[in-house]
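seq as requested:
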Amino acid sequence: MTIRYRPIATQLAASLWDGGPDSYGMQPERRISDGYGVPCRHCLAGVKEGDAYLILAHRPFASLQPYAETGPIFLHAEPCRAYDGADLPPMLDSRDYIVRGYSRDDRIVYGTGAVTPRAEIAAYAETLLARPDIAYVHVRSARNNCYQCRIERN
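struct tokens:
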């Protein structure tokens, strides 16, 4: 099986770049990066020092429901190219992440969440996605639970 790392949708990013509201209906905050710990959820790379970025509330689920977590994410303030690849995105540079499976109805599949070393993310995601009850996988911060990206079957 091959996997694909998926960023937030370009349509959503474009709406935010055009001044649209975040998942809480608020305007994203604009900041300048110090070059450390500001991963863009569209290009899946870090925002470089001196570059502007947006902080916003993001809900990576289509509808509100009990498992639809909403949390802070970063996005380049100016349009960037969407990440499209099977290789570990450059922004995933911490030592470990929470990797967790979700069902087709966007519910956490219990027992799948695990703090996973960076080098093992792809293998664990492939193991989860081999299961018929797993539709997709989230990668989240192991320290703050912030949404990083989605992994799907290719």
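The beta strands are 3-6, 29-32, 52-58, 71-76, 96-102, 114-117, 136-141, 147-153.
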